[in-house]
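Thread: Modeling a multi-component assembly for a lab meeting

Hi all, long-time lurker, first post. My supervisor asked me to bring a structural picture of a complex we are working on to next week's group meeting, and I have zero experience with this. I have the sequence lines for every component (190 residues in total). Could someone generate the structure of the whole assembly? Inputs are pasted exactly as I received them:
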Amino acid sequence: MITKLSEEEIKASLERTPEWSMVGEAIQRTYRFEDFVAAMRFVNRAADAAETSQHHPDILIRYDKVTLTLATHDAGGITEKDFALAAQADGFYGD
Amino acid sequence: MITKLSEEEIKASLERTPEWSMVGEAIQRTYRFEDFVAAMRFVNRAADAAETSQHHPDILIRYDKVTLTLATHDAGGITEKDFALAAQADGFYGD
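Re: Modeling a multi-component assembly
Sure thing. I ran the full set together rather than chain by chain. Output:
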């Protein structure tokens, strides 16, 4: 069973993923793309990664913007799994 | 230039698409699927239809639930385009 991170651990992790921020009991980032097609391409890569790791973010697509929201509901908070998927998605984005 | 529908026209259209409801200046429906993979399959069909018609809904994916929110920003409200895409998405869902 994965345990949720402490506030200090979250703070340290957010320093390594500076584009992400805490929103309630989750971490969130909005990515911007050239257009809707590019946004959907990213969404499908992120969805494949989510399915592989069996850890699924909330995904909001608004034309050329994609917002990922990550939390670990089983642990009642934010865990290493969230930061792992965040880093993976950042990799797909290319930054 | 497409013009926004009147309240009466919206009401009549919503009677033909009863699973949709008005949320602010938009129409919205949440679909439920067997799992995330099935949800993503639907999202991709809806995204293809959106790109073909150059009319893009906001799409929120929460594991097995997909919420589409449709408005025509150019017209400042809800138009026939929104109900056309809503009907198309309903067709992909199979109801």
